[in-house]
Design goal:
With about 240 residues, the protein is α+β, with helices and mostly antiparallel strands. Helices cover about 30% and strands about 25% of the residues. The chain has a single domain (about 10-235), classed as Glutaredoxin (3-Layer(aba) Sandwich). The protein has helices spanning about 35-45, 75-85, 110-120, 145-155, 155-165, 185-200, 230-235, and strands spanning about 10, 15-20, 20-30, 50-55, 55-60, 95, 100-105, 130-135, 205, 210-215, 220-225. It has a 6-stranded mixed β-sheet with strand order 5-11-10-7-8-6. A 3-stranded antiparallel β-sheet has the order 4-3-9, with helices on one face. The protein has a two-stranded antiparallel sheet with strand order 1-2.
Amino acid sequence: MPGETAILGTGSKGNAMPLKNASAPGCVHVQPAAPSRRRLLLRLGFLWCLPLLSHAVAAGQVGSVAASTFDWSADPAAARAAALLASIGKAHWVQEGAGTRLVYIFFDPNCPYSHKLYLATRAEVGKNDLALRWIPVGQLEASSPGKAAAILAAPDPLEALHKNEDDWDFGDSPAGGIRALSHPTAKVERQLQTNAALMHQAGLQTFPVMLYRDANGRAHLIVGLLPGDTLTTVLRSVR
């Protein structure tokens, strides 16, 4: 369910400054829920397609902030972006493109808005030195952990990511196209736990999440799916 009021903003000297509200959808992880209630939520579409306000928050130059010591009391929005970016090296991702202009994207393999973000980035990824680092987190559906594991454990993780997105099923139960891995190794399970922990420590429960620095070195966090023109502007602003 919607849990955040969000703004699209930028900042200076570590402060977040609102530019405009940007209404954008995302997939919200609802927990806890009994299996019967969870199935009902899925059938009604409440777990998948919950609209919320999406936002970007900006911080000053990113410092060394440990993931376990987030302190958002002074400026919660700016600190969240800076802290998550400072800890992003702990994440396990699949990279598209060989560029040095990096965008990190937390996604669930069964989230339709993550899938729409994937489609919307096709025109920009790999161009003008832009690379996307897709960070799988399996939470939305019973098959999500196994699909996230299948992507990370694949001999070619990028091919597995493309399989999941290019074979997407928009039937009665929208879902990624890769087959879930039934018995992931302990290593892959730890990798997925790390990815999920980074989101949780940042107070995030919505997919997709984008994280990047702009040309001035400011950290930005975007929750949800931005409109096409806004997304293009964001991707072209990445340092």
